[in-house]
From TrEMBL:
Disulfide bonds join C184-C193. SUPFAM superfamilies: Growth factor receptor domain. Residues 1-23 form the signal peptide. Residues 152-194 form the EGF-like domain. GO terms for biological process: animal organ development; system development. The chain crosses the membrane at residues 344-363. The lineage of its organism: Eukaryota, Metazoa, Ecdysozoa, Arthropoda, Hexapoda. It comes from Ceratosolen solmsi marchali. This is Cysteine-rich with EGF-like domain protein 2. Gene3D superfamilies: Hormone Receptor, Insulin-like Growth Factor Receptor 1, Chain A, domain 2 (2.10.220.10). GO terms for molecular function: calcium ion binding.
Length: 381
């Protein structure tokens, strides 16, 4: 009965909740799809998407109709279909349907410039006039040529080959937007990106080219070169020494109580780090149970190490067990001696060798100090 009860409730759970979850996922996916479809893109970006979709349609119809695709094959085989109204209609039927973002905007733009599309198709297609240049730049006026900007497609500073001295980008370049001002790359500044920004120095410069390189990390704001000697001023964590430049400050020495309790200090270039002490320590000078100021509760100093008291207790028990074993072997030898001197002599010899070898190994491995071996220490640290 219990099995039937569980099975019944499992089936009910799946029937009640699975459709809801599935429906929720579908609703979420549908919502995202609608958001992507209705997304509004910048005018030039929308025109580029329309042109890309149209070009995909050209490729699709050439291959789908005649199983070809390359331009030379089209010239020989497509004939009148290549520039026919039938093919244009087929392309327009699939136009914008492959667009991931801004499909609605793409369809709207296609309707607005339909006459321009037809003009290119029937008049300029065979003249090698680029579709993007014709539609988006010349007719729809949504974009500008490369490195031109604004409503009238004005030329960016340094047009055509050295825009913003090749150290930045022109705002609005390629669109009918923007003001043409230079947005400088990292390390460059100035109206035309022909100056080095703070933290950089001029490593090369002529009338047309400027190369800026990073100052040393010790430098604050400006420098004359790439070493710590070239700083005009030192960053925090560094100090200036006459004739030698900026040198790292060892905060671990110069700053008292630089780290909180039960941490030790590590000096880095320009700063420092605080690392928590080993769990065996109550205060420490470095990492590991051999660097403790004092042992924490539950640990005991043995030589230079703070060792877990439980381990020490177990090692003492091991030593006593070993000694009792030796004693037991000696007693057994004495009992055998009463029956057979010969047998007792042989057994006694083997026992003596066994004890000697065992103690020699223990002595030379440091175990006689009642210390755990280093592998155990590594595991508990």
């Amino acid at each position: 009965m219990k099995i039937i009860y569980i099975a019944t409730h499992t089936v009910l759970f799946l029937l009640l909740y699975s459709p809801v979850s599935s429906g929720s996922d579908k609703t979420s996916g549908h919502k995202n799809s609608e958001e992507n479809k209705n997304m509004i893109l910048p005018p030039c970006a929308a025109c580029k998407i329309l042109v890309d979709s149209f070009k995909k349609g050209i490729e699709k119809t050439s291959r789908g109709k005649f199983e070809g695709g390359d331009s030379a094959w089209e010239e020989d085989k497509l004939g009148s279909y290549k520039t026919s109204e039938v093919r244009l209609i087929e392309i327009q039927e699939g136009l914008c349907k492959d667009v991931e973002y801004g499909e609605t905007q793409c369809h709207s733009l296609a309707d607005d410039i339909e006459t321009f599309i037809e003009e290119w198709w029937f008049t300029h297609q065979n003249n090698n006039l680029d579709l993007f240049d014709f539609l988006c730049i010349q007719k729809a006026k949504k974009c500008c040529p490369k490195n031109q900007y604004g409503p009238n497609c004005e030329k960016c500073s340094g047009y055509p080959d050295n825009v913003c001295n090749s150290n930045g980008k022109c705002k609005g370049a390629g669109t009918r937007k923007g003001n043409g001002k230079c947005t400088c790359d990292n390390g460059y500044t100035g109206e035309y990106c022909f100056e080095c920004a703070n933290g950089f120095y001029t490593s090369y410069k002529d009338e047309k080219k400027l190369l800026c390189s990073s100052c040393h990390r010790a430098c604050k704001f400006t420098c004359l070169g790439g070493s710590s000697k070239d700083c005009h001023e030192c960053n925090p964590g560094w100090k200036y020494i006459d004739g030698k430049g900026c040198f790292d400050v060892d905060e671990c020495i110069e700053i008292k109580n630089s780290c909180p309790d039960n941490h030790f200090c590590i000096n880095n270039e320009g700063n420092f780090s605080c690392i928590v002490c080993d769990k065996a320590c109550n205060g420490c000078l470095g990492d590991g149970p051999d660097m403790c100021d004092q042992c924490t509760e539950g640990f005991e100093k043995k030589g230079s190490l703070c060792i877990n008291k439980d381990l020490l207790g177990r090692k003492t028990q091991e030593n006593w067990t070993r000694y009792i074993t030796y004693f037991g072997l000696a007693v057994a030898t004495g009992i055998i001696l009463e029956r057979s001197v010969y047998a007792a002599s042989i057994i006694g010899l083997f026992i003596a060798i066994y004890i000697s070898v065992s103690e020699y190994v223990i002595a030379h491995s440091g175990i006689e100090d009642s210390l755990p071996n280093l592998s155990i220490i590594d595991n508990i640290s």
